[in-house]
Amino acid sequence: MKTSDIQNLKVAVVGGGYAGASAALALLQLGADVHVYEQAPELGEVGAGIGLRPPTVEVLRKWGVFEEFAKVSAPSDAIEVYQSNGELIARDPWPGINEYEQTNHCRMVHRGDVIETLLRLLPAERVNIGHKMITVTDNGDSATVKFENGVEVTADLVLGADGIRSSVRNQIFGEVQPVFSHTIAMRAVISADDAYGLVENDNFRVYVGLNGTTVYFLPLRHRNQVSFDITAPSDDTAWAPEVTHEYIGALLEGFDERLQKIGQELDIASMTNRGVYDIEKQPNWHTNSVALVGDAAHAMLHHQGQGANSAMQDAAWLADAIKDGADLQDALRTYQAKRKPITDVLQDISRKPFDIGDSFPETTSFEKGAGVE
């Protein structure tokens, strides 16, 4: 698109998480008139740890913001896979680590630090909190969003970045029900001092149990913390299931005694417990004036750690498509045509339980160069 057309492009981003904040940053750098609308009344620390993959790190370099993320993350060389009893099975370098500069290691980081950093990089006047969307209307060459607080916004492009239960998606593209994976994820952040010496390096550890339970152990050494995640089979379809120390103890039976001790000392009240859901692959992500990014477009299970990475890479691909497109409609067609085949594959492989024999099934070729063409 012509520079003047991009500068006149009004964009309303619904949702201030990974996808929304990343899209806003990428489009603001192009010169578009972008505003983010987040329903939460305040922005605070949420969730646990994630790994930013080398292609995502490359995107951050492309945007000129890598150093800001380096301050709140630590580089990791590999993923270490263990039997539940602590016996090392494999140590696999992160996919893509040899395809980029050595500094583009996978970065271990807290989810809250990612979102806080993204939002801090946006001009304060561009971020509107306490804006819960109630309706979105596709007008053809524009779209109008109405919020619960009475604010109404019409934009050339409305981006649905409002997560797995996206109201933008459901109102424009049809109702989509999340799909239950029959698993539960229990996440906590603990002090590294309470990890019984398990924090030996910055590498992500996976402990695979025989009963279907998996422990994800992600050091956040820049915080002197550890993200501790237990994923286990469950038929409890509640969005936020209740758990007890007794339940956790039963799940961790047979695991390394140090992991069992951590489980019994977790602060249940501070944990994030979620039934694990994704969505089916969606046939269409855009109209002429509405488009989806992140989980709204392709929510996936967490086994491959691709959710946040995919959301941030969506922003890079979308910005490139707008920069290079003949017009907005051409850009949105290009964005979907290039990006969707990648996330379709990632949705499929993310439905596979963690496999001791293959830490990264089929991901490498799709990660290479993502969003940095």
TrEMBL record:
User: Which Gene3D superfamilies did the record assign?
Assistant: FAD/NAD(P)-binding domain
The record places domain FAD-binding at 9-344
Q: PANTHER family under this entry?
A: MONOOXYGENASE, PUTATIVE (AFU_ORTHOLOGUE AFUA_6G14510)-RELATED
Oxidoreductase among keywords: yes
What keywords tag this UniProt record?
A: Monooxygenase, Oxidoreductase
Q: Tell me the protein's name.
A: FAD-dependent monooxygenase
User: From which source organism is this entry?
Assistant: Arthrobacter sulfonylureivorans
Single GO molecular-function term?
monooxygenase activity
Q: Which InterPro entries match?
A: FAD-bd, FAD-dep_Monooxygenase_BioMet, FAD/NAD-bd_sf
Coiled coil spans: none
